[in-house]
Each structure stands twice: as C-alpha cells, then as structure tokens.
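User: Hey, my collaborator sent me this sequence without any context and asked if I could get a structure. I don't really work with proteins. Can you help?
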Amino acid sequence: MNICIQLRSFVHKLIFMSAGITTRQLTNEYCKQITDLILHIQQVEFNVPIKLEDQPDLLDIETNYLQEGGGFWGAFHNGELVGTIALLHIGQHAGAIRKMFVKQAFRGKELGIAQQLFDTLLEDCRHKAITDVYLGTVEVLKAAHRFYERNGFVREPKESLPSYFPFMKPDTVFYHLVVNKS
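Assistant: No problem. I've predicted the 3D structure and written it out in structure-token form, which is a compact way to encode the shape of the chain:
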C-alpha cells in the first residue's frame, strides 16, 4: 500500500474515532436497519423505482454475501447504522460492489464515511486476491459517480462488462476498477 493511501486511511480512522463512528462486518441481525437505510435513500431521496422485493439479498446478508466470499460492512454513529457497502464475490478473481449508501446527514469528505467503507472493501479484496471490481449504479447519483471516479474507477459501457457480472434492473451506469496488490 503506498504512503498516500496509508496516510488517508489513518486520517479517516482518526476522524471516525473522534466523531464516534465505527465500522464493522454486518450479519443478518442488521437486516432491518440495512433495509430501512437503503430503501429510504433509494425511494425517498433519489426516487429510484426499486422495492424491497427487487432486492431479496437484503433479507439474508449471510447467504448472499458472506457465504460466497464477499462481505457486507456498516458504519455506525452512536449505535445507528449510517452507511453500508457490500462486496459480492462473482468468481474469476472479481467482485461487484453493491449497496453503497450513506445517510444524508453523514455524507461528505468531512467525516469520510463513504471513503472508509470503500477502503475497508478494498482491503478485503486484496486479502482475497480479488483483482477486478465492478459496479452498476443509476444516472441520477452524480455524487456517487464522482466518488467512484476519484477512487480510480473507469466508466464502462454495459456491453464491455464480463458475462458473469450480475446486473441489477435499475442500473444504467457501470464502472470497473483494477485493484492494486499493494
């Protein structure tokens, strides 16, 4: 890991600790909190026409993410879930990012919650020898696009994604990242 990434990670951890924010792996005991957070952001904030029925993976985190070699992490502030990110292991040394959401009041560079969650996911990818990470998102999430691009993701046309990438119905924008080993 290069010195800039290590320093950034260290600074984010200090900010997290001083703000009372912690991150941890999530299991099925958090499904209610996860669905409440994600559905509110999708449906209320961004008017994405998606329902819980369209996302059954949220009702069984352990089977859909953890058993298959992926992960699901959450950021907490005083016991409240304020951010999530998930990694779906899709084979071929690849993963797909799913469910990256941060509660509106906790977004931005000041707390760096999205960055800390993303850094946690990348560290897990390196540990598991995942070399390629893909994701799909929707056009309206412009701040998310900027975040991904700032973190080295390259926008890709849908047709160029590998056949094993699990597409989600509402996604219209796609990204790819080659994970550095260091």
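In plain terms: The two ends are 4 Å apart (CA to CA). You can pass these tokens on to your collaborator as they are.
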